DNA sequence: CAGCGGATATTCT
DNA sequence: GAATATCCGCTGA
């Protein structure tokens, strides 16, 4: 007799909904990353929604490319991309096939496999920092482009799956502008997080990056 | 915590 | 060439 949350996979239907419905519903759920050295479990505390059809902030807004092809595929799969020349981020594809919407996983609390995650994040100074931010989350869970397209809803062997976990109470969920999104995409308050959770990343407004080192 | 600059793949111009 | 769904190391509170 325990308060152990049900260890049940989220069904594919969970992801086959409008992305703004799926995103807040993911908070509190458990992501399981099966590595060769053992499992790492993460409780999701912060996410952002991206809708390819209406959203200038979405990678898919300007159509399909080699990088974003997975976003156009069936729901319940991982879209992993490489950004800023050195980091990976993981999204979960939502909506029907062809719609190109996805939820960016921005932060979470490491539940098990903490030493494995810490080994991937040697610079982190506290356990709360291990997955505080999308690139940090991917690094802690050893996620890279080789996992792009992974089915997270299969009952078979898979490197990543999403368990039902314990959904965050709706009165603890907050939403606001997305971190680092500029232009017209800044209008959508599609960042969702669990209020007061110590693993949520600080909000950073969009700041256009300075020029690359000037060629001499 | 806030602010700053640097590192760099992918995409569009 | 320029922008982008970022993080790190530094400085200062």
From TrEMBL:
Question: What family is it from?
Answer: Belongs to the DNA glycosylase MPG family.
Region: Disordered, residue numbers: 163-185, 197-216
Here the segments flagged for biased composition (Basic residues) are 206-216
- Which Gene3D superfamilies does the protein's record reference? Methylpurine-DNA glycosylase (MPG)
NCBIfam families, alphabetized:
3mg, PRK00802.1-3
- Name this protein carries in UniProt: Putative 3-methyladenine DNA glycosylase
Q: EC?
A: 3.2.2.-
């Amino acid at each position: 007799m325990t308060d152990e949350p049900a260890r049940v996979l989220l069904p594919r239907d969970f992801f086959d909904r409008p992305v703004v419905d799926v995103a807040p519903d993911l908070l509190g759920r458990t992501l399981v990353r099966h590595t060769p050295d053992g499992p790492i479990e993460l409780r999701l505390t912060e996410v952002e929604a991206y809708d390819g059809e209406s959203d200038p902030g979405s990678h898919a807004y300007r159509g399909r490319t080699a990088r974003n092809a997975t976003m156009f595929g069936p729901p319940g799969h991982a879209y992993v991309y490489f950004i800023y020349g050195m980091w990976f981020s993981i999204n979960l594809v939502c909506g029907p096939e062809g719609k190109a919407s996805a939820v960016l996983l921005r932060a979470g609390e490491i539940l098990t496999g903490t030493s494995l995650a810490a080994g991937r994040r040697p610079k982190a100074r506290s356990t709360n920092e291990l997955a505080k931010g999308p690139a940090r989350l991917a690094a802690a869970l050893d996620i890279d482009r080789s996992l792009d397209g992974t089915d997270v809803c299969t009952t078979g062997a898979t490197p990543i799956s999403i368990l039902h976990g314990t959904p965050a109470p709706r009165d603890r969920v907050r939403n606001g502008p997305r971190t680092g999104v500029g232009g017209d995409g800044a209008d959508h308050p599609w960042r969702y997080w669990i209020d007061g959770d110590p693993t949520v990343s600080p909000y950073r407004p969009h700041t256009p990056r300075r020029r690359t080192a000037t060629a001499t």
